[in-house]
């Protein structure tokens, strides 16, 4: 191809938002590329026009063999959730950013944006959004025609996030520009311009939880209350799983969902998939996910049935096997990514032995911890210690191939 393609940022202000040199480059180029809205700003352009309509790969392939002087128009700053970074990896480009819609929105509401969390739901599912937002004092969301301000508000309210107020900034830089301040309840019925940005800001501090949530905060099945991975064992098991911010995690036999929920709060930008065979526990788990603001996938099934619907994991926690331990562990080892870990909690010597032998037969190394915890309990004016059931924590690590 010839000289690098010039990628120029433009706002809804059209030509008026461009530096004179940028407009000169556009007028002198032989091929102008952009969305319909961007191309409409240059009705008098006489060269070749290419409209971007989800055909980016085909256009890149075409540009790689082109010798024409080309300019590509992109919204605002092409490197902020834009086309710029994709193009830079494929073809020679020169990028000239404009004021982004983000900058314009924050200027309109007179808020700093260096301390904001930015999340795009433009062309993406909202799945997992709850744990990404929870606890953040200021959040900016890039929306689309499906993930509208109203749908975002309804989603957040379903997780009890009432501590936020919102600004909706619409059609920034254009004739229909508008900025409104709304409560989430008001935003849940708001219909505005399809081109918009949502800014969320704390109006008060919301509930907070650190790692090792107290057992009694989880809704549990009665009269069998106590079917939960206890706090102390849970913290140790989480550490053994080696969860990263973007990990994909399975929780098999999730019961109340305590391990899945705490995993999701660590892997805010990852995915958590939980499975539980008991209907009552499954329903309690769903309620707990709402309380602790974790948007995870929970299914009611008996593993290993249903695991084929989950993506390959970086980490697997097994709190219950339902008696299918050999088949289950083989599937888990086969599906686990290289370098990943499986952590299994066993309450009996028999389960410990069978799990350890099965892991070894599958060529996976293990380490084992016997955890014996006692908690203080008042008796009259004094305190005594009451022991919890001993638990074996088995950690299996799948080695990376050399």
Tell me about this structure.
Helices cover 28% and strands 26% of the residues. It has 402 residues and is α/β, with parallel strands linked by helices. The protein folds into three domains: 5-99, Cobalt-precorrin-4 Transmethylase, domain 1 (3-Layer(aba) Sandwich), CATH 3.40.1010.10; 103-202, Tetrapyrrole methylase, C-terminal domain (Methyltransferase, Cobalt-precorrin-4 Transmethylase, Domain 2), CATH 3.30.950; 215-397, Rossmann fold. Strand 6, helix 6 (129-133) and strand 7 (138-142) form a beta-alpha-beta unit. Helix 12 crosses helix 13. The chain is elongated and about 85 Å long. It starts with a strand and ends in a 5-residue tail after the last strand.
Question: What structural keywords apply?
Answer:
402 residues, Cobalt-precorrin-4 Transmethylase, domain 1, Rossmann fold
Query: How many strands?
Result: 19
Give the end-to-end Cα distance, rounded to a whole number of Å: 39 Å
Kindly give the count of domains: 3
Report the principal-axis shape: elongated
Shape-level CATH architecture of the largest domain: 3-Layer(aba) Sandwich
Q: Name the CATH superfamily classification of the largest domain.
A: Vaccinia Virus protein VP39
CATH top level of the largest domain is Alpha Beta
Overall mean pLDDT stands at 94
CATH fold-level assignment of the largest domain: Rossmann fold
Instruction: Write down the Rg.
Output: 27 Å
Number of helices: 13
